Amino acid sequence: MAISGQAGLLALLGAVVVGLLVPSWTGIFLVTGAVVVAIAVDLALAGSVRGLSFTRGGDRAVRLGEPASVTLTVHNPGRARVRGVLRDAWPPSAGASDRHAVDVPGRGSRTVTTALLPTRRGDRMAYRVTVRAFGPLGLAARQGSHAVAWTVRVLPPFTSRKHLPSRLDRLRDLDGRLRTLARGQGSEFDSLRTYVAGDDVRSIDWRATARSTDVMIRTWRPERDRHLMIVLDTGRTSAGRVGDIPRLDAAMDAALLLAALASRAGDRVDLIAYDRQVRASVQGASAAELLPALVNGMATLQPALVESDASGIAAQVLRRSRRRSLVVLLTGLDPDPLEQGLLPILHTLTARHVVLLAAVADPRIQEMAKARGDAEAVFDAAAAARASQERAHVAGLLRRRGVYVVDATPDELAPALADKYLELKGEGRL
Amino acid sequence: MSTRTPTQTSLSPDARRIWRAARGPVLIGAFIVAAAIVITLLRGGGTDGAVDPDSVTPAGSRAVARLLADRGVEVIRADSLKSVQDTVDGDTTVLVTQPDWLAPDRLAALRDKAGTLVAIGATGEALTALAPAVGQARTDTAKSREPGCDFKAAGSARIGGVVYRAPSRCYDGTLVFDDDVTLLGDATPLTNEQLAEEGNAALAMRVLGQHQRLVWYMPSLSDARAGAGEEKSFYDLVPAGWWFALGQVGIAVLLFAAWRARRLGPIVAEPLPVVVRAAETTEGRARLYRRARATDHAADALRAAALGRLIPSLGLPSDAQPPAVVDSVTARIGRPGAEVHAVLFGPPPNTEQALVQLADALDALVDEVGSH
To answer: What distance in Å separates residue A384's CA from the closest CA in chain B?
Structure first.
């Protein structure tokens, strides 16, 4: 049960009665008794909360930053009207506007809509529905809670979507332009055409020329149906915040853009998220269902505060991709974890696959490196310079072992990774 | 898209569940209360009631009250000053068990009105008011003492407490007769426990049985303030009815508190993500440099960064040696070689001031090379 402010006001009014009319213990007893009786009567006349039943509907998934709405229908099987306040409680990060005034007539039902504006990725579960039903006098209310399950999955926002059209244009250019380029490992025979001045003479197909009156050359195009393996590192380095978002979220954004681009280019894309165990895995999804599968798989990922197991990542990649693939490692470029974890086992990956390592750089470091003025700023600049040198050193080590490295700030990582992919594809290195 | 939830969704406990959860503690509480009541009844009074004519505890005084009543003395127990004043007349002994609790003027008035006033352990202001000629020497433990005066009691008695200085002293000063005031050092001879020992009973009978009536006055704390001052405070002027109204306001406040305290369902907890800024280690390293005054390490890092920008813009191989770099820079911007060498490869600065200047010099050099 609960009482309302009116009950307190009534008792306060009673103080005047006691003071003026019956200044005695009896007076207090009578007035308080009257208030208690009124509360009890009101409580008895209030509609039952225990008997209510609920039905939910509405959104089950929403992109981070977009509003969602979940409906809640209250059925009142009792005869008494249920009038009062309803709270549809959600965790704070669901951003729910959770209080509703309800007035459900006896044997009737009403629907309220809870608007959600989630502030974080992941699954948000409805906590409980609490109803406070006031009696006809408005003095007291019955209150009770019900568990009415509902889950809204908050998906990664995919803010880098805006870069997709321009990259797709470039992909189409590539398809058209590349027919004259030299063959590479990741290119396939496209067609024969007559030689025009400026073509590479090495592309002349002598047999076809012998059969024809013109000099014929072979054209090649980037091979389709290549395989991409995106590996999200969810270890401790992914928890660090750049700006206000974790590195992991920036990496997801880049992975989504890359996957969208690659699936349009006709490549197959798989994803695993790994720290010391597989946190999420998307395998063998068709082009149409790839993006939904990816955002669903990524939605609940959280950085784990453990050191990532590089050899475990390598083992997973080798097991999952038997043919030659482009392995995109979205991880940190921190010297220690890489030198001790990834570098020693890198050859097992590079022997069979093309490895591309993408890392989220911190604009704060660049900002610090430019700081001048007083001693504190210059020490900051020195520390930032040292950090950049270490990063560059590790990136150099990786490049020497045949790994492509993309190191960019969160805003630039997704387009930079997409560009690198297009470049590799253009050169037929996939 | 919707799902039908099961009918049994309520989380609030119903009456049966509340009873089930509460019956254990309620039964234990009831048992404790019952046991306490039984024990109190069996012990008959408890430890309270020292020098109380109705108390049967060792420290009580029911035995001496009975003895006096058997001898025809009317024993009246009083615990408020008003009832004492109503019953006292010239042929009355008044026993005050806590004289120090009363205002001195009230004590003096009582002394003047009563036939004899017996005070137990009076000290300070109370003593001055009752017997101005008597002084207080010290306190002593209760032990067997001889009368040592013309007090016609039956020999030795156990008594202690306050020892008085007076012209006529009995029992080493723990019993003093001063006019119609009798001062007892403590109540030992009157207690149930000690009454039968030595001459205690005789002493008690002699001291308390001087008149037909004995008013056994045990002051309560509310008497302590009485007589301290008669001026009325603001609160005395408020009509009594409004005190009850204030009580009712208190009840209203309780109701308001209950209204505000009742939450609409519990607070929802949720695990929060870790918040670690990625640049934290770099900032930590900067603070370490600062604290260690590592100007040499800082200068190394800044020079390496400047060379990293200079070498590509000069078109030199990445492993170019210092002389080659200096020559190349000199050739490009026309500054003296020694000066360029001092900026790029000179000795490390040993003050923070020098470090700041070096940083600026490096910036200027890189900018100059870039603009040529």
So the answer is: 6
